Amino acid sequence: MQVNTKRCRLYNIDNKDKEDNKDKVCGMHNGFLTSPSWPAADAATIAGSVSGPLQAEPLCSQVNRQPTPVIDENQIKRAMIQLFDNGETAPQRYKLKLKLNLVDGENPEFIASLTKDMRNFKKHIPQECSMEIIHMANELNRVIKEQYGVKPYLGKFHFNQGKGRHIHSQIEPYTLAAVYWKQEYNAWAGVIKFYDWFYEFDLFTDYINSAQQAKGVKAQELWINPQFDMRPRPKTWQQQRLEKDRGNV
């Protein structure tokens, strides 16, 4: 899966008076999700292409932008995403874990309990972002249902402070996770909005060890930011031939 990391300009449906309507932003447009909390100073926003991509008509609303912590892909070196399945009899069956390796050396971990019940999802969303997050969740519900014929699991992230302490953790504002089943690929997929970082992902069963399986890890993905990827790239056939030719000179 190729992830689209291009930045897109905010879409303004009112061309009559752009200055008066500069705070109107779209929830979803041409396969890209945007949010009032995302825009940077230049009115650009982090955007991710939602597999396919997910298509939807623009749905815009007037909002009062709130300052949010600067967390975007430039601050993230790596992100490990794991889907946990605790079994059909568990009180909370599905959870999504997000572990970030940040450029400042911090490695925070966040958990999102997943549900298909919108009434449950709406609980405890911070007031400062409730309108935006509920709007985005409704759009994801609608579009994923249209595209894939399934209703996604939705969740909000809270900081994982250790075993037994997360019950009282506060929900991180401007965060959202959606996870859904791709029947045609027999695999899980989803999208994450974490402050100013938006990421579309597929989850894989590769490289899950026995210890992870015992903890309920169902599928996972490791995202490595290309800006910080120091792994050597495999050489093309042409590069290998050129090196051989130089060695014979």
Strand elements, count: 15
Report helical residue fraction: 10-25%
Note the run of SSEs as H and E: EEEEEEEEEHHEEEEEHEH
Spatial sequence of strands, sheet with the most strands = 11-9-8-7-15
Radius of gyration: 20 Å
Q: Kindly, what is the distance between the CA atoms of the first and last residues, rounded to a whole number of angstroms?
A: 41 Å
Total helical elements: 4
Sheet/helix structural class: alpha+beta
Largest sheet, strands/sense/barrel: 5 strands, antiparallel
Low-confidence stretches: 1-64
Count of separate structural domains: 1
Global shape: globular
What do the pLDDT scores average to? Answer: 76
Report the portion of residues in β strands. Answer: 25-35%
Folded structure, characterized:
A five-stranded antiparallel sheet has the order 11-9-8-7-15. Strands 10-12-13-14 form a four-stranded antiparallel sheet, with helices on one face. A two-stranded antiparallel ribbon has the order 1-5. The chain is of the alpha+beta class. Strand 12 (175-182) and strand 13 form a beta hairpin. It has four helices and 15 strands. Helices cover 16% and strands 30% of the residues. It has helices at 118-121, 130-148, 210-214, 237-248, and strands at residues 8-9, 24-26, 28-29, 32-33, 44-45, 60-62, 76-85, 94-102, 109-113, 153-155, 157-159, 175-182, 187-194, 197-202, 217-224. The chain has one domain.
